[in-house]
Amino acid sequence: MDKRLRMYIAATAGLAILGGAMAALAPLALKHLVDGAAGSAAVSGISLTSVMVPGAIYIAVLCGNRLIGDVRPVLVNEVEQRLMKALRRRFVEHVLRLPLASLLRQRSGELQHSLDLGITGAQLLLTHLISTCVPVAVELTVMTMVLVQLGQPVLIVLFGLTAVGYLAVFAVGSMRITRRISAVTDASIAVHGQLADSLTNVETLRCFGAESAAEEALTRASSRLLGAWRGYHRVSTGTALCATLIFGVSLTACIATAAGSVVSGSLSIGGLVLSSVYLLQMMRPLEIIGSAARDLARAFGFVQPLLHVLREQTEPGHNAETTSTPGRQRSAPCIRFEGLTFGYEPGRPVIRELDLEIPAGSTTAIVGPSGSGKSSLIRLMLRLYAPQSGRILLDGCPIDALGVADLRSSIALVPQDTPLLHASIATNIALGRQSTEHADIERAATAAQLDRVVESLPSRYATVVGERGLKLSGGERQRLAIARALLRQSAIFLLDEPTSMLDSKTESAVLQAIRKVAANSTTLIVAHRLSTVMDADEIIVLDHGRILERGTHTSLLAQGGLYCQLWRRQMDGNSAGQEQ
Ligand SMILES: Nc1ncnc2c1ncn2[C@@H]1O[C@H](COP(=O)(O)OP(=O)(O)OP(=O)(O)O)[C@@H](O)[C@H]1O
Fold first, then answer.
1. Is the predicted ipTM greater than 0.90, yes or no?
2. Which residue ranges does the record assign to the ABC transmembrane type-1 domain (predicted)?
3. pLDDT for residue 315
């Protein structure tokens, strides 16, 4: 928590305490005013001093309290906004470091709504704690002290009973509300998840005529939310009705007791006024505490999904152990996979006891049928997932011993899918590099054959590519991803079908550029189009997570195995395409 925030919190709490004390002291000043006026009038006409002093104090206390009421929201808002800013940052920091497996369990709309609800909840908590609970607690304490001084034990007992009755009703109500509100938050998160899912897939839904299915799913989720809110309001109104009942009974009992005391002479008229005002004034903070209890219960429910996300373990390698990292890998390392076994789900291995060594500075291609585990190997290299057994070593050092940030900064990746940030082309190319000259960005774009596309756009490198880069074609997005990787000039290149969306002319130009930049790096390239990888130093044929064949293009063709079959099929396909 920064120093200024602590200062604002202290100032806000100070004002809250002062406001509470003033609210409680105002009726006491009124009592002295009334008693002063009544006493003076009875003796020899109204004395100015006995009326003016308590009158002036009464007015000053009331005005002071109003003034505090005017200033306090400004401070509360400042505290709120600063805390929300810190909360948003903490959330994003945390979510960006969560393991992919836990992120994939929920829709992004759900995650985002957890933050929204959490912020609303935190705001409610803060507002009530600072603006309600503190001043009201002070007010009630001061009022109790004054009542004790007034020497009216029956009234004190009655006030006490009223307070206990109120608090009991609100305590039970809050517990029931907490349960209802968790149903509301679950339903609300589901609505937002469904909504975000539909909005991000507008094109698919439209193309498949599935708009009504999405609408119905949203309507179902919204109906559940409506039902959950109804449940909440039923409990909330029930609590409020019980409180009103207690209010009526207490008011009657108090006024009757105070009136009886005046008749018997044990209480002055001022005392009667004071106890009536106090009674009403005591009900008000109790009412406030009641509605605060309802809101606090709601707020606790709202912050639960956010706390749940924040409690999830981030991927290892971001925290303490990163201090011992050897730093960014500068020269091309030798990569070793040792007895690597991995599966996304228990009992369903995707990589099975894989042993592989990729010499420093060499290019190794991974080919094989769809689903054989090629991209999973790349994800393991990036530590997006952890293997169940075995390990990956860079120059003999297990990647688990490296800080995640250092490991990833040593890698230039071209992923299979290239969703881009809703930002400019230049920003997307320079992603992850703090200070990049514009000339370097242009050079990388030219090498990736993206320059002509960029030149044709009205805002050139400043063109915003739309959400997930959808304003660019698939091939353009892929070239942008290649430009980004080329700009990184890392010790390791991981290329997952980097040219699958390019025509053969652009593909060969791009591959040439990659070869040039990656000449001194260790490269792992995954490809379906075998012509892309025929020049690799070694080709690994993966099948069901195991190495089936390995060798150079020529030796694999000579073996006449799966690689040879795949190659023939592709060649036949190419010549059939050309004949057509
Ligand atoms: N996040 C995930 N959760 C569960 N299973 C997954 C996940 N990602 C991939 N898989 C499964 O793991 C297996 C291997 O996937 P992988 O992406 O490594 O295959 P691949 O060889 O790269 O396939 P392709 O050539 O089609 O890209 C597949 O059966 C796939 O369904």
1. yes
2. 10-298
3. 80
